[in-house]
Amino acid sequence: MSEKITVLYCEDEIDLRENGIDILGDIFPGSTVICCENGVEGQRELERGTEFDLILSDYNMPSSGGRSGDGKTLYEYYKKTKIKAPFVICSGRHEEEFKEYLEDEDFFYLEKVAFSFSSKKWFQEILEMHNEMKKKAVKGGSNG
To answer: Is the pTM of this model over 0.70?
Structure first.
């Protein structure tokens, strides 16, 4: 994928965040990666109205300013606002814990240990699938 995209990346552990930035830069060269330390900062970025092509968030992150800063809270905000970008939870928790969310067409789970430079094809498939869904929605909306 040579297309440049804008990614919102939320990760509280600095070493993992820096490694994640490198991985995303390798997967999507020349793209913009906006980083946040928790879901509260991530929500602020979404509230600014930036159009993201991909949202990647850790699940377990600390609270900030008395507000829950975890990936679940960020995802719930994302769903309320009807933002249209794939939302990927990257977690060490088992996929089964996200069963209720996996039914959503925009929600994806990536095991944290699998997030690596070899994840390129996986991310490309998610974005291609999402772009196809957007095209179908536009075609369907213009006919009805």
So the answer is: yes
